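Training component of the fellowship. As part of building independent skills, the fellow (R.M.) carried out the full modelling exercise for a liganded target. The chosen ligand was beta-D-mannopyranose. The inputs are recorded below so that the supervisory panel can assess the work.
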Amino acid sequence: MKIKFLLFIFLLAVTFHVADAQLLLAIRQDLPSDKKATKETVNLYHNLKKILQKGIMFGHQDDLAYGVGWKYVPGKSDVKEVTGDYPAVYGFELGRIELDHPVNIDSVPFDSMRNYIKTVYERGGLVTLSWHLNNPLTGKTAWDPADGTVASILPGGTKNELYKSWLDKVAAFIVSLKDKNSVPIPVILRLFHELNGNWFWWGKDHCTPEQFKQLWQFTVSYLRDTKHIHQLLYAYNTDQFPSKEAYLLKYPGDEWVDILGFDIYQRKQGEEGNNEFVQSADHMLRMLEEIASEKNKIPALTEFGYGQVPDSTWWTNVLLKALDHHKISYALAWRNAGFKPSGPAEYYLPYKGQQSEKDFVKFYKEPNILFQKEVTKQHLYK
Ligand code: BMA
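Fellow's submitted model of the complex:
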């Protein structure tokens, strides 16, 4: 009897040990697409997956650079003014770096951006970079969808050398992102976003799926293998999409992507607009989660907004309803550009006195919506 009992205990211990070891192995084998990713980048990748169980990190584009009615005030942030806390995720934009301009497409100096990114890393937040790069074939903006642009920058194309020189500039900026001990700061690179829309030169009808995949793979390989950059996670990111097949039409493959996302904006006001937003965001988030789980990637709402938030309860009554049942890594609100000399004001988050301010504070207090203080405790890079 005693021997049987001891044997039972022994077998139990062995089983647990094996299960534990298998789990550990699975975690260790679950690496970012870059197999040479730095330790901090691998840790980030694992922690982003872990935090999926805890909640959704809230993000804001250009949060530290400017807001409605102010620009470049150290420490200031519209999110902080309203909630007392910073966002957990901070988006920054590389557009114009390809032209060697000292400031980006939205006038943010690249030197300041580098400092913001260091600050974010020190406080344990997450950085994601977008790039509205000019059209390399025509020299006009990202919104110049001239036919043949993608083909022209692929290897063998007339603009491939020019495109490589642009990637060299992106690479130099990324390599310059280091902490005070010279440790490379991990960031998410959100390449060729809204790729199924028709407005950018890399968009829907302006290249074939094959050309898009080649462009993606060439770009990642150039940064990773030629420039030896190993502090990046790569985000594949569409606009709104009708089905999983449509989402994956131009997907370059599991070995080239870490994060899966899409962008969504509410354009219609009132009850009908709200319902439409909740329904479509909810539906797409469900499909995104399924794809991410099949592919073992990290799902995120890579960009969203409701211009000027003209609804005092939008945060808890609309956005929260869309997000609530989902396990996604983060949701990034677009920029508070503020009042412009011409045209309407552009902002997607409340500032002090804006009509949705109180509701945003309620949203902030939701236990599964995570801002900086909460995420700092999670030690994303350890
Ligand atoms: C767009 C707008 C523009 C901006 C661009 C790049 O969505 O916000 O004003 O220049 O993004 O950040």
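The panel noted the following from the submitted structure. The pocket of beta-D-mannopyranose is lined by residues 93, 95, 105-106, 132, 335, 337, 346 (CB under 6 Å). The CA atoms of residues 148 and 254 lie 26 Å apart.
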